Structure of Tryptophan synthase beta chain-like PALP domain-containing protein:
Amino acid sequence: MQSREETATNVLQETGAALIHAHDDGRIISGQGTISLELLEQAPRMDTKRVPISGGGLKSGVALAAKSFNPAI
């Protein structure tokens, strides 16, 4: 049985596709951060956010966007 990395490498080589990590890619983290911007636009006084943590990309995006929108956060 091949590892996930070996399988992904084979698929990438065969298809020319790009591997995009769900929690380790700046583009994904930036996109996930838009959740925070929407929340802050709708509830600007919000002082607490609860975000599920898995790989950390969602949490990172939400925190980075919130901090850039409001440095006091």
The chain is about 60% helix and 0% strand. Residues 26 and 57 are 9 Å apart (CA to CA). Residues 21-69 form one domain.
